[in-house]
Amino acid sequence: MVKTVVITGSTRGIGYGLATEFLRLGCQVAISGREQASVDRAVAKLAALGSPGSSLAGVGDRVWGQACDVTRADQVQALWDGARQRFGRVDAWINNAGLSTPLLPVSEQDPEAMRAVVETNLVGALNGARVALRGMQAQGSGSLYNLEGFGSDGRIMAGMAPYGLTKYAMAYLTDTLVKETRGTCVIVGALRPGMVITRLITDQYEGKPEEWARAKGIFNILADRVETVTPYLARRVLANTRTGVRIRWLSSFKSTLRFLTAPFHKRHVVD
Fold first, then answer.
1. Count of C-beta atoms within a 10 Å radius of residue 81
2. What's the Rg (C-alpha) of the chain?
3. Phi, psi of 196, rounded to the nearest 5 degrees
4. For 166-206, how does the pLDDT look when each residue is reduced to its tens digit (9 = 90+)?
5. Could you tell me the CA-to-CA distances from 26 to 11, 22, 133, 156 in Å, in that order?
6. What are the tens digits of pLDDT across the range 23-54?
7. How confident is residue 56, by pLDDT bands cut at 50, 70 and 90?
């Protein structure tokens, strides 16, 4: 049976990379972003993967998109309803939409930027979880995954308070949803992609060349590109049958190994 996957915040970055890989794996995919214009561009780009002669011929019939502000419960419900109407059901929902702020102490952060991060990352995930769980319980099956990130495991970095606290809370949300759905027809889990080079990271260093120069050393040891990480995550989501699973790309063992081998094996992820 062809599976349908809905991914919030999927017009670029990890969300777009996941959409690409789920399509490669034969799924039907619903993408979303705040602006319909950006959604339309992403859908057209994904549909173009199925150009004549490619292995994804006909993929345009399996991708659909709709604008969705995840902080608006009615728009999240409309995304679910639209995906159901287009594809018949939703097998997996991924709460991926997220924002960050520049790397600054809390005392120097813009209040509206902090509000936007909390509302998108947390309120958006709560809205997505509510809609997806209600819909999946009604249809009799489905899986929900929250995209966790820096801060989810309790790590702390100066300047990352707004983003980090939302991801710490995201881990709490995942664990709570696992408990609330235990014994039901719904699987709940989380994705931990590790350090992935996207605009969510690079935009934090805009106008800070010295900080960027220092950060590049760590990125070239620990970070990965979207196209490296998302195939693994997508395959694991489709294969998973257990609730409470955190699908990790950058394990503690892998991190340690990369640091130990860094003097001998130079990785080049960012310029």
1. 14
2. 18
3. -120, 130
4. 999 999 999 999 999 999 999 999 999 998 998 888 888 87
5. 19, 7, 24, 39
6. 999 999 999 999 999 999 999 999 998 766 66
7. confident
The arithmetic mean of pLDDT across residues 84-96, rounded, is 98
Q: Which two tokens stand for residue 182?
A: 């235990």
Average pLDDT (219-241) is 95
Which domains, from first to last, does the chain contain?
4-198+225-250 (3.40.50.720)
SS in 3 state form for the chain? CCCEEEECCCCCHHHHHHHHHHHHCCCEEEEEECCHHHHHHHHHHHHHHHCCCCCCCCHHHHEEEEECCCCCHHHHHHHHHHHHHHHCCCCEEEECCCCCCCCCCHHHCCHHHHHHHHHHHHHHHHHHHHHHHHHHHHHCCEEEEEECCCCCCCCCCCCCHHHHHHHHHHHHHHHHHHHHHCCCCEEEEEEECCCECCHHHHHHHCCCHHHHHHHHHHHHHHCECHHHHHHHHHHHHHHCCCCCCEEECCCHHHHHHHHHHCCCCCCCCCC
State the catalytic residue, choosing from 16, 145, 163, 168: 163
Q: Is the pLDDT of residue 55 over 90?
A: no
Task: At 134, list the tokens.
Answer: 């209600």
For residues 61 and 66, what is the distance between their CA atoms, to the nearest angstrom?
15
pLDDT digits (tens, 9 = 90+) for 79-88: 999 999 999 9
Active-site residue flag, 232? no
Provide the residue count of the chain: 271
